[in-house]
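Standup notes, structure subgroup. Blocker cleared on the flavin-adenine dinucleotide input:
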Amino acid sequence: MDAGVLVFADLSSGELDDAGRGILAEGQRLASTLGAPWGAACFAGAPDEAYEAFKPYEVPQILELQSDRSDGSDASAGFDLSDYPLAQAEALAAAAHVAGAKVVLLAHTDLGSLLAPALAARLQGALFTEAVSYSREWAGLTLRRQGLGARVVEQQIWRDPPAAAVPLVLTMSPRALSSVVLSGTRPGEAVRTACSAPLQTSGCGARVTSRVPPDPQTVDVSEAEVIFCAGKGCDRETFDALCEVAKLVGGSVGVTRPVYDQGFAGFERMIGQTGKTVVPRFYLGLGISGSMHHVGGIKDSKRIVTLNIDAKAPMFPNSDEGFVADAGQVLPRLLERVRERARIKGAA
Ligand SMILES: Cc1cc2nc3c(=O)[nH]c(=O)nc-3n(C[C@H](O)[C@H](O)[C@H](O)COP(=O)(O)OP(=O)(O)OC[C@H]3O[C@@H](n4cnc5c(N)ncnc54)[C@H](O)[C@@H]3O)c2cc1C
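Run returned:
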């Protein structure tokens, strides 16, 4: 296999998720930008149906990575590659060698951010993490990422990609990924090839014993998936109702400057220019006028829904969906509905 670009697709959940689809599409684009062949690598064990999702990206070849125990112990003892991140990095490095990869591309997810540095160390390669964009220029591949809460853009150049002696391990920020395929792509079946790496559990470092999802109540609001944000149009009672709704549906609470100033929430919950930049899948703003200082911090959210009593509030043009209503009336009714659903779910 000759893959100038090797894309790691995570199938640990048994299917290709949004980040997986996004990174495959990005691999296709990067290979086209570099004029290089490409392929994908994933850990073996996913059901055959998971590979259906690769078809739209015209992936020429998929390397299925598996452990090949070389410590003399019984393989049936249950060595599970997914428990050992360093073993995963080892297997991925072996795949990069097999593929002759010049660039290994990963989504900057929890797993991708864990694997990338270990992989770069094993390949003795260059590492660039959380890229938001790249372009091919005369000097090489220009890579960009955001810094200081998205206030600055850092730029680095990986020189002469086709001839580079040092491979590049590149992670892309999930928020910069789009699963849209290149035009002209014809969906097709990829050739799947098994790829084994000799592994020894003794050299695998830390072992994952359990995975605990982040608590939406305490997770950093900049990493929250669902945000309920309160503006000055929410009084204390409405704000408390909003917090309970967020808790019951597994969302996180955010606030605007005036709500922080009133002491309803800590500074770490404030969203906007002075506060945090957020990129949730869903953002619901209640009683928020839509000043540029706040909107600047939410504009990359996937879906923005607004509720405001004033139909002319600037927040509406910045939203995907809007409701003209009184938050003080809507919140108690919403809370009732959510409590009822939670009761039904609890009883089931
Ligand atoms: C340098 C600088 C940095 C700043 N940084 C930030 C920042 O990081 N984050 C931030 O949020 N702000 C920031 N601000 C403040 C910002 O300019 C705005 O003042 C602030 O965002 C306004 O918050 P708000 O929308 O909650 O309040 P308001 O602008 O007062 O809007 C309240 C809204 O609630 C609506 N409303 C009232 N009653 C109801 C009701 N019963 N039901 C529904 N809607 C109702 C009103 O129609 C109105 O649109 C910054 C300001 C400066 C100068």
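Discussed briefly. The chain has two domains: 5-203, 221-347.
Next: hand off to the docking folks.
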